[in-house]
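Q: Hi! Curious about what Amino acid/amide ABC transporter ATP-binding protein 1 (HAAT family) looks like structurally. Here's the sequence.
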Amino acid sequence: MSTALLEIEDLTLSFAGVRALDGVSFTVGEGDLFAVIGPNGAGKSTLFNCISGIYRPESGSIKFAGRELLGSAPHRIAQAGIARTFQNVDVFPAMTVRECLLLARHRHLRSGPLAAMIRWGRSAREERAALRHVTEVAERLGLGHLLGRPVGPLPHGVQKRVELARSLCMEPRLLLLDEPVAGMNHEETAEMAATLREVNSDLGVTMLLVEHDMSMVMGISNRVCVLDFGRRIALDSPANIVRDEAVINAYLGGAL
Ligand SMILES: Nc1ncnc2c1ncn2[C@@H]1O[C@H](COP(=O)(O)OP(=O)(O)OP(=O)(O)O)[C@@H](O)[C@H]1O
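A: Let's find out. The predicted structure is below.
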């Protein structure tokens, strides 16, 4: 059994009387490729928003590497080592891939604008290191030849890879992936699945994934948590989840 990296305990949050999360608990182990699935409105995005500090749950606890995250601002949570990808790449379309990745990387630098003026030596070194790191990440994700190209006109599948690269430039310990293959064709989905597996095993990045593509989820994850109406209805290996009657009735009957 791996060491616990993310411990979610009894998380509850309501919106105008609707229980978006209702006493949800689970643990993501270091190195896991952990999926959260469930029908529309099950509470998956709400869960991500709680972990990344955008929503504050009414009760419960979210521990990351043993430290309570509840009440921490989103930028503190990111600094603690949790990065997140969004369903759509949220950048200025005219930005190049390089600029987009450098922007993410800059949050990682120690020098702010003032330090950049005063201690330009360290700042220049950090800039060079940032550029090296961004290039390495882009090459690993097959984006090296696109570094100078604007993000806006790139095909959807490539933009999703840029989004993944952007989050990896922050060197996260835990990556929250929000529907990483939504809108992708079969080939792009297979490529993205292989990349995620590689990032998980080669870079040792633990992943928490929300996705509706069930064959992709079952193919890459080692643990699956199923939510329905804000409640956890199952938590098991993919092989057992596809046979679970409650899961089939609530979700997989329609999704497989
Ligand atoms: N900001 C909000 N204000 C009001 N209700 C919300 C808000 N965010 C989520 N909800 C409600 O909480 C419930 C859970 O929604 P959530 O978006 O977390 O589900 P989901 O599992 O991510 O769905 P999907 O698969 O469609 O993205 C839904 O009933 C939704 O309408």
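A: A fun detail: The chain has two domains: 1-81+172-256, 92-171.
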